[in-house]
Amino acid sequence: MSSHDGGILTLVATPIGNMGDISTRAVQCLNEADLILCEDTRTSAKLLQAHGIRTRTCPLHDHNEQERIPALLELLNEGRRIAVISDAGTPLMSDPGYRLVRAVIAGGGHVTAVPGANAAVMALTLSGLPPHPFLFSGFLPPRDTARRENLSVLRAAEQAGLCATLIWHEAPHRLADMLASLAAVFGPDRPAAVARELTKRFEEVRRGPVGELAQHYQEHAPRGEITVILGPPPADDTGPQDLDTHLREALKSLSIKDAASLVAGIVNLPRRTVYARALELTRAQD
């Protein structure tokens, strides 16, 4: 179907806390839609009622998105207008909708959006840390081992030259452990910020070295919606040079495998990452 004879799928940003943060165009779009897809219809009902929106709603979440797609594509084919909203903020950003958008695009359908609130970008602008480049990674794995492995890949990317402000969302009960993982992988002195309850009555942005923030939230259990921002590595970060220096030294007397195992422990990176770099260095020498 072409975008001219079919319906339109519109991604509509909704408030992340303060109910006043919805645009006139968003309200108009939701009123004119034939169907609103909600992450949770009960959560969205409050917002829709507040603005007198009576459009039919239907749940779209991670567990039903794939099976709903054929019927939704059929509705768009018939010329219907479908809006997508999440519980808060911009749809698809750590929220459902990506698979549906991909399917509509693949079918030649028309996708557009009504921009608005986004917690990650708001937290970034309030953090006092460099606003760009930035890398937003949604939620980290909840378990410590998987979380550290995930963070180690980013630290390895920094050692290969990545220099960006890093952003995540986190659940209140995991915040202290997550900050401790950041301190362990990136060093306790890395500047960071924790943004909490943005646009709401108890909005708070706490800034400081990530090690100190980990300590603070270990002692003071946080509440509410949370975004964590970690500043880029300092200009004098010796990570990339350290890795290669240690590897070159180890490779003089050890096999690639043994050198990688030894150096991984020294530079606090996954062994497979260090092994890959050791291979590159060996090839370059040959």
Automatic annotation (TrEMBL):
MF annotations from Gene Ontology: rRNA (cytosine-2'-O-)-methyltransferase activity
Keywords (A to Z) from UniProt: Cytoplasm, Methyltransferase, rRNA processing, S-adenosyl-L-methionine, Transferase
GO annotations of cellular component type: cytoplasm
Domain of life: Bacteria
Family statement drawn from the similarity comment of this UniProt entry: Belongs to the methyltransferase superfamily. RsmI family.
Functional description taken from the UniProt entry: Catalyzes the 2'-O-methylation of the ribose of cytidine 1402 (C1402) in 16S rRNA.
Protein name in UniProt: Ribosomal RNA small subunit methyltransferase I
Organism: Novacetimonas maltaceti
